[in-house]
Design goal:
Blueprint (H helix, E strand, L loop, with lengths): L13 E6 L1 H4 L4 E2 L3 E2 L1 H13 L4 E4 L7 H14 L4 E5 L2 H4 L6 H17 L3 E6 L14 H18 L2 E4 L21 H14 L21 H24 L12 E6 L15
Parallel strand pairs: 1-4, 1-5, 5-6, 6-7
Antiparallel strand pairs: 2-3, 4-8
Helix pairs in contact: 2-7, 3-5, 5-6
């Protein structure tokens, strides 16, 4: 279970987010209207406590852990943040040639460098993907192991872990997009609220962890049809990109590479924590 920080509340001045598509905000908005995402939403909550907050988001979709480190760590350090979020590793576990020690090492190297600079570092432990996409069940042991390695590395460097895995709501399909790999607007909202609660931000509470109204379970035929459609619409194209050596992030750069004041909130999810 996530625990709120047992320390005096800090007022942060410079927040920098590192990571992949989830931190970029994929699933919350689009490339036409703009992506919002949990990191943007967290910045908005931080700005309530400190309107002078400046925020940069270096995350790029498709990046694996070593790319996050090689492309984003040095620019992040140059911005002299006092709060950093580092979330990576899911893209790694999806790949056939997955090296758990290497991925954990990349994350720990970022933890070490950022905490040594004086930043307060926050990371996430991931929910069980197999409960969101049953065909991903073979990947469950990898995810469990990665979460354990992340917690251990975080403990060694004083990094805050927001561990949402113990809450059933995090695998509720209404928090996810149809591709089952990215959080939807409601999911991004809940992630931001979980981090805010862990950091003891004013006005935060555990409402993010509350379950949504019950959802009727699909019949066997409906469930199988949904799995086949998902495989054809998302799993197949993803495998095709891997075989061609391509990534969804090819040619993309960070959406917010410099520290900027936090503007007005983006489009709101209708009704705080409503069912989707």
């Amino acid at each position: 279970m996530p625990e709120t920080e047992h320390r005096e509340r800090r007022v942060f001045e410079r927040y920098v987010a590192l990571g992949d598509s989830q931190t970029e905000g994929v699933g919350d908005g689009d490339d036409v209207t703009g992506l919002r995402g949990w990191a943007d939403r967290l910045a908005e909550l931080l700005a309530v406590a400190n309107p002078r907050l400046q925020y940069a988001n270096l995350a790029v979709r498709g990046r694996v852990a070593h790319q996050v480190r090689s492309e984003q760590l040095e620019p992040a350090l140059a911005l002299r943040p006092d709060l950093v979020t580092v979330v990576a590793g899911v893209n790694d576990i999806l790949r056939p040639r997955y090296d758990a020690v290497e991925v954990a090492g990349e994350l720990e190297a970022m933890f070490a460098a950022l905490t040594a600079s004086g930043a307060h570092v926050v990371t996430l432990a991931f929910p069980d993907l197999s409960k969101i996409a049953p065909m991903a069940r073979p990947l469950a042991p990898r995810l469990t192991d990665l979460n354990a390695r992340v917690r251990a590395a975080a403990s060694r460097h004083g990094v805050t872990v927001v561990d949402t895995g113990g809450y059933a709501v995090t695998t509720d399909p209404r928090l996810w997009t149809v591709d089952r790999l990215h959080a939807g607007p409601l999911g991004h909202e809940r992630i931001a609220a979980a981090v805010a609660h862990t950091l003891c931000l004013p006005g935060s509470d555990d409402a993010w962890s509350h379950p949504l109204p019950p959802l009727s379970a699909p019949g066997a035929v409906q469930a199988l049809t949904a799995e086949l459609r998902w495989a054809a619409g998302f799993l197949g194209p993803w495998i095709g990109r891997r075989l061609r050596g391509r990534s969804s992030g090819d040619g993309r750069s960070a959406k917010r590479p410099q520290l900027l004041p936090v503007g007005p909130p983006g489009p709101q999810v209708p009704g705080e924590f409503d069912a989707r």
